[in-house]
Design a protein that fits this description.
17 helices, alpha+beta, Dipeptide-binding Protein, domain 3, globular, four-stranded antiparallel beta sheet
């Protein structure tokens, strides 16, 4: 059993006392029957035992066991909770979209399937630092987009400049705005010139995929929203909003060819992605054979899977962390007092929420980055549950009777989100902090114009973040630094800002770890968030129809179909 499997076995073996269960169900507004104290048992198809061969006679010759042939399905369907907001990989920010983009596009680099998730070649064959801060990249030749357009150095230059376009509002603009220019050395060589040494440059091209230059220039940026073209293992066929997205195999993908990362491996020819918001409906579709993989799944639903032949629950480490952001925007707000923010952390019994509402599947953190990120200190402890200390801090800050605050709750499609937000609100109320929960449905993420115009928000709000880079810069700079596009807490610390700035221009990786460790320690003390947990990605796979589907990290990656 692997280290991670051992971890989940320990987590899923926990049980709460009746007192703990009653306490949390009362806080969340649920009946006792509304919380199922379940383990992480999986419903799997029974495995047949091969018939015993007759005993060999002295004159018989041993016969080799036949190698089982993997049956590759013609098609597969995947159900997730929310639809994408765009098929343009440079715009869409949904976690559901990550799987679709990973199939239709390529980045310059990818993550390997090994436990270390090492950086491996994608559309780039190699990279090296030259002349101090310049980054030279050798590109893969002979690659074509799904429309026949050739991939080359000019394509890379165009992609960087597209993601620097403020009017276009790309999702990764903060990652690319500090690049001075891209030099085309020859058809398959580029040199990227950052304003300062950038140790994260290769990682930017793991999560940022490559789009076709000529196609976008001729058709306009908007064409990629509904008719995307990539170089990836699958081609886009059709998108019916809120119903399905269809993809089909790209037989010319470089990864299938000799020397490619999936050369000679099994290939599913057709894929369908279906947005199904209700978990019960996703499970029903799995039961009837309408889909082969569903995501997410909650611990409460495990009993309903027992009569689904072949179903297997998989919990995959995701790199995502969740928190309640605390806005310091409003003048005179009690939230501007560090003691108040610390009190909010002491007030919420996060461990009981994890154990009771979330089936023990989450892993508690003390920061906004999870344990897989550089700089995360496994010896640092999160805030303990201490309502008395919370009340004492509120009184010392001048709020002995508490105060009222808005609690924004955007729907990210997370399992049990409504319940755990209500539980958090109930814990805060017990120390005097009354909240008004404001829900946002679908893919709406608060009043975005208000955020981007630096006019708010006020109050507190549920948020989460994770990236395929597994580098703290991509979470901390975006969410903590004032220049970050998601610095919606309006938290300011000159010391933290300098640490984050130095870490993103220091090539010494060990020094960067020390900087992030120090920054995370300060952020914990200043408490601009109520720190919650790391989120695993939860899948249910029908092993009868998809015996070798291997979701990894937070991607479905059905192009990776085959034995792990």
């Amino acid at each position: 059993m692997t280290k991670e499997q051992n971890y989940w076995a320990r987590v899923c073996g926990r049980r709460l006392s009746r007192r703990q269960a009653l306490r949390l169900t009362a806080r969340a507004g649920l009946g006792v029957a509304g919380v199922a104290l379940l383990g992480c048992a999986t419903a799997q198809a029974p495995t047949s035992t091969p018939p015993r061969a007759p005993a060999a006679t002295p004159t018989s010759r041993p016969q080799p066991s036949p190698t089982p042939t993997l049956k590759v399905p013609e098609s597969a369907a995947f159900a997730y909770s929310l639809d994408l907001n765009s098929l343009d990989t440079h715009i869409d920010s949904t976690r559901q979209g990550t799987a679709v983009h990973d199939l239709t596009y390529d980045g310059l680099f990818r993550r390997s399937r090994d436990p270390g998730l090492e950086l491996i070649p994608g559309l780039a064959l190699s990279h090296q630092w030259i002349q101090g801060k310049v980054w030279e990249v050798k590109l893969r030749s002979g690659v074509k987009f799904h429309n026949g357009e050739e991939f080359d150095a000019e394509t890379v230059k165009f992609n960087v400049e597209r993601q620097q376009n403020v009017d276009f509002k790309p999702r990764y603009i903060s990652d690319f705005k500090d690049i001075e220019g891209v030099e085309v050395v020859d058809k398959y060589t580029v040199r990227i010139h950052p304003k300062a040494p950038d140790p994260t440059m290769p990682l930017k091209f793991v999560q940022s995929m490559i789009v076709p230059r000529k196609y976008v220039q001729e058709k306009g940026n908007e064409i990629m929203t509904t008719e995307p073209v990539g170089t990836g293992p699958y081609k886009f066929i059709k998108w019916v909003k809120d119903e399905y997205i269809d993809l089909e195999l790209n037989p010319d993908w470089w990864g299938w060819k000799a020397g490619g990362i999936r050369a000679g491996k099994p290939q599913i020819k057709k894929l369908r992605f279906r947005p199904i918001p209700a978990e019960s409906s996703r499970i029903a579709m799995l039961k009837t054979g309408g889909v082969d993989i569903i995501h997410p799944i909650s611990a409460d639903s495990l009993p309903t899977l027992k009569d689904v032949s072949g179903s297997q629950v998989l919990l995959m480490k995701s790199g995502f962390s969740a928190w309640i952001a605390i806005s310091l925007f409003e003048e005179g707000s009690p939230l501007r007092d560090k003691r108040v923010r610390q009190a909010m952390n002491y007030a919420v019994d996060v461990d009981t929420i994890i154990k009771t509402l979330l089936g023990g599947w989450m892993s508690r953190t003390y920061s906004v980055v999870g344990s897989a990120y550089n700089g995360y200190d496994p010896n640092e402890k999160p805030y303990p549950f201490d309502p008395k200390k919370a009340k004492d801090l509120l009184a010392a800050a001048g709020y002995p009777n508490g105060f009222e605050v808005e609690f924004h709750n955007p729907d990210f499609g997370h399992t049990k989100q409504k319940d755990f937000v209500q539980a958090i609100a109930s814990y805060l109320a017990e120390v005097g902090i009354k909240t008004k929960i404001i829900p946002y449905s679908g893919t709406a993420l608060f009043p975005q114009p208000q955020f981007t115009a630096k006019k708010g928000p006020t109050g507190i709000f549920y948020d989460s973040r994770g990236t395929s880079t597994l580098d703290s810069d991509f979470v901390l700079y975006q969410n903590i630094h004032p220049a970050g596009p998601r610095s919606w807490t309006y938290y300011r610390s000159a010391e933290v800002e300098k640490l984050l700035e130095d870490a993103r221009t220091t090539l010494d990786q060990e020094a960067r770890v020390r900087m992030y460790r120090q920054a995370l320690k300060i952020i914990k003390e200043d408490a601009p968030m109520i720190f919650l947990w790391e989120e695993p990605y939860s899948f249910v796979v029908n092993r009868n129809t998809l015996p070798a589907a291997n979701p990894r990290l937070w991607l479905v990656s059905l192009w990776d179909y085959g034995p792990a």
